[in-house]
Amino acid sequence: MKQWKQKIACLLAGIMVITGFFPWNSSVSVHAEESLIKSSAEGFEYRLKVYESGIKEYICTSDTTQVYDNYQDAVKGLADISRKILTERKAEPFTVKIPVEIKADQKVDGIEKGSNPFNDAVHKETYKETGNPNEGQGLAQFLDARGNLLNDKLDKITYDETTKSYEGVFYYHMLSHQYAERYSKTITKLKEVIDSLNLDEKSDYEKCKTIREWIGKNVKYDREYAKDPANCSRRNAHDMTGAILDGYAVCDGYANLFHYMANATGLLTLFEEGYQIGSGLQHAWNLVKIDGTFYYTDCTSIALDKDGNATGEFLLGQDTMFNLTVTPKNNDIENTYSNISKDDWSKEHSVCKGNHNLVKTGEGPATCETMGYTGYYCTNQGCIYRYRDYNKEPLGHNYDYTNGEITQSQDCTHPEITTYRCTRCKAPIEVETKPSLGGHKWQPGDIIKAPTCTVNGEQEYTCTVCNQTKTEPVKATGHDWQINKILSAATCTSNGIARYICKTCGYEENHTMYATGHKPEIRNKKEATCSSTGYTGDTYCSVCNKKLSLGETIAKKGHTWVKQDNIPATCEKGEMEVEKCSVCGETKETQISDPLGHDFGEWKTTKEPTCTKYGTKKRICKRCNEYEIDVIDPTGHQHTKIIDQKAATCEEKGYSGDLYCEDCRVIIQLGQEIAATGHTWDDVTITKEPTQTETGIRTYTCKKCHKTRTETIPMLKGHHWDNGTVTKEPTCTEPGEMTYHCTDKNCNESYTETIKATGHQHTKLINKKDATCEEKGYSGDTYCEDCKQIIKTGKAINPTGHDWDKGTVKKAATCESDGIKEYTCKTCKKTKEETIAPTGHTKTEIRNKKQATCKEEGYTGDTYCVTCGKKLASGETIAKTDHDWTITETEATCEHDGMKTYTCDICGTTKSEPIKASGHKFGAWATTKEADVFSKEEQKRTCGICGKTETRTIGDKLNATISMNATSLKLKKKQTTKKFTVTGLAKSDYITSWTSSNKKIVTVTGNQNGTCKIKAGNKTGKAKITITLASGLKKTINVTIQKKAVICTAIKNVSKKLTLNKKKSYQLKPVINPITCTNKIKYKSSNKKIAKVSSNGKITAIKPGKVKITISVGKKKFVSNVIIKK
């Protein structure tokens, strides 16, 4: 880094308050050869930088610029990134550079004022409380850093009017701190403590109470440190590491510890500082959010009973806190958070639930600084609420200014200070009773050490008032160089070398003779005309003839336009105003009215449409024969019928029929099947009567299709049957028969019924065998005892297999030998043995290892088994390592070489590499001042690396030009006109004078911008008016003064024919010649129902038709024929 950058970095570091180290999660080792470490901030990474001094530093930055649309977005965005980076871990010093662009329509006060309001806003947002114990005060107690908004060169940032933004970096310079190990141990222990408190299911109040009780039991107030911090062995009483690791803390140590523990358990907690009422000593405390409301709590003095439980009120309201205990440094917290309770917690949340029975306890007297009060307490059982009515104003101090003590004597730099004390409370007040003597009056004395060319000297100074002395450096004189010998001459592009010698001390050294640079000249230049471009010319070096840069094309010069006859409007183009360049003859056209629009005839069909296909039609414009073609929608199926229709029958399906178009002969919709209707049976007909021995028949006939179906009629009941006789016995598998006989006399009728087979009713399992561990079993056959048959064959049962126990080791395996393990079956007690594989050399260690360095070889080490001690493998020789280079770099510039020096951190070997000067990288020439009539164009280009600039002039001065709206004027006696104007002046030119050749005839007063007032005298005659430009160009006009008024001779710039669409308008802009005509312009419409014209010449079309618009100026008239279309 350049020295000036290092100085700025140190300055910035000096204004930051570094009070500790910031949170880490676990150790990380970063080697010097690693170039990048990713940050948790998206897009950011740490890059290693080694300075000439050997100091290593990590720069946390990003290649992406953070772009913000406004001031507030920038504050929030930079704070979010800063918070992530500051809470990350980095064991070495580091710098933060956040590339930033802040957009703004105009300069922002918060940035313009040294950026301090902006930096303060980012700092406040970075350290705001989030509920995360490692952020807010949790971060501030170990690292309170303030960033700075600077430009890319770490200097004051400025507003860029071109981009409408501020572009630069937001910069932090951080130092590592010795508290890293303490912090890590503290966080580890705190996590164990919080876990042991079991707070997850507890209320907010219970969490707060439990944390306070733990702090009260485990942390003591460090009175030794408070009394004499310089001689106390403990150094961390102000942060929570002292409370956790040492067991001691002072007020802010307590407050920082409670802040961390409460936030870690979900209680939003704030940290506040101020002064104790009465003593005025600095103090710190907390605000904790309980069920949505903030209360004040102070852990410095925690009251516990014999069982270690908190007693008394520990959640105070603002009235109690600020009237009785402390005064805050500022009201930032009170102004930020609106939900801070005025009353103590117990007022509404004690056992009384707000229904207190208050009894007066006594009076609290007012003091010099605090209000007096009347005290009350609640008599309800278990209530701890105390109420104080602050009703007496503070007395104020009564200082005894007649009895003071001089506590500081007056001298050159210090005023006399007298301390007086209050007669009531003895509080001191310091008063300046005499000013300082105005500072030392230093008298230069002897030079006690003379300066040399390279070493500062010293000079002694003595104060003429108090005789105090001081020594100040006398700047080294520096070498007084002169060229001794030119070793190599410089050229346009290459540096030379000269040997210089100091005239004073004779010291010699080589100096670079910088390249002389090219001597530019312009070649191939070409002037632009109105019809062709020009060329600025190429730049060559007049010394070495090298082409340095290409020229640029010069735009064509502007045309000198002269109005021509207009081109009438057509259907598709409006009326065109035509102008022609009087220099090159080029023309241009400008549309001044709307197109007429097409006048189409009737549509004619060119292709007839069909049922499903589009037809076409065409119509032709009556004016220009342009035509339009449009489509005719399909006709649709207009003539249809149903075909292939079939009615459904009782048993066969029908069909609804297809829809058929008779025009296009296509089936356009298929039909659907119709379900069969089913039979409709008539009343039954008995076709065979039943008897007592035979069944009858019923016959049904369908009414629609006459199909028939029959049903059986059971036999008549008339016989008296006996109980039947088994004529064939049923078996397990065969049915039997039962025969019934009529018992009526003389009736021999009988009938037979089937008896179902009995089935296998009496069965048993035979041939069953249980399976064993190794032999198959058999499920058994099913045997019928009635029919003596096997009715179901059994199945084989697989062996059950042995149920081995876990086994017993008979012989243990070693690293290389098998072992034996015996297993016993739990069922059959049979045993088996299995081999235990060798364990192998599972636990090994490396012996005789030696690290390689850049000085000597190393050895990987031999591998031994820890169990059996056997050498398993020999190591290998490790080649010498490469040098562990630390690089120190002197940066090259555009004009000077740099140097890169490598130093091995192990063996001290060094080597150097030159870094060639880059040479200037000039950008394109940019015009800084355009050419005008007085000077040529000026251009500048800038080196993109070092910012060096070069300037040049190019081209020629502009030619002086002038245009007038009249070449001569006529005026009536005493007439005044302002209508004459001058235009067309070249850049930067202006009118220096207006003069009349005869002021009795005419006078003129004019302006630099070309306007004037010309006034005719009281007599006729002729005179000349001369206009003189700053460039020296002069123009003269002839003025004639006459008795009669100047009459109009011509009305121009109006078309003879105009075409407008209905409800459209057109503005007439007639030009009256001569310009000094005094008659007013009048407009008239021949038919106001078709078109009307206003007094200022605006035509409004009302309905279709033709109308004449007459323009009158005195006796001169001009008629424009206007056609109004639909």
What does this structure look like?
The protein has 1126 residues and is mostly beta strands. Helix content is 11%, strand content 37%. Among the domains are: 3-177, no CATH class; 181-349, C8orf32 fold (Roll), CATH 3.10.620; 442-474, no CATH class; 481-513, no CATH class; 520-554, no CATH class; 559-625, no CATH class; 959-1046, Immunoglobulin-like (Sandwich), CATH 2.60.40.1080; 1047-1126, Sandwich (Immunoglobulin-like). The strands form 28 sheets. Strands 1, 2, 3, 4, 5, 6, 7 and 8 form an 8-stranded mixed sheet that branches. A hairpin with a 7-residue loop joins strand 46 and strand 47. Helix 2 (71-86) crosses helix 4 (116-126), helix 6 crosses helix 9 and helix 7 packs across helix 10 (251-264). The longest helix has 17 residues, at 180-196. It starts with a helix and ends with a strand. It comes from Anaerostipes hadrus. This is Bacterial Ig-like domain (Group 2). One of its GO terms (cellular component) is cytoplasm.
Q: Can you give the helix content as a percent range?
A: 10-25%
Number of helical regions: 13
Based on DSSP secondary structure assignment, what is the total number of beta strands? Answer: 85
Termini Cα gap: 80 Å
Which strand-content bin applies to the residues?
35-45%
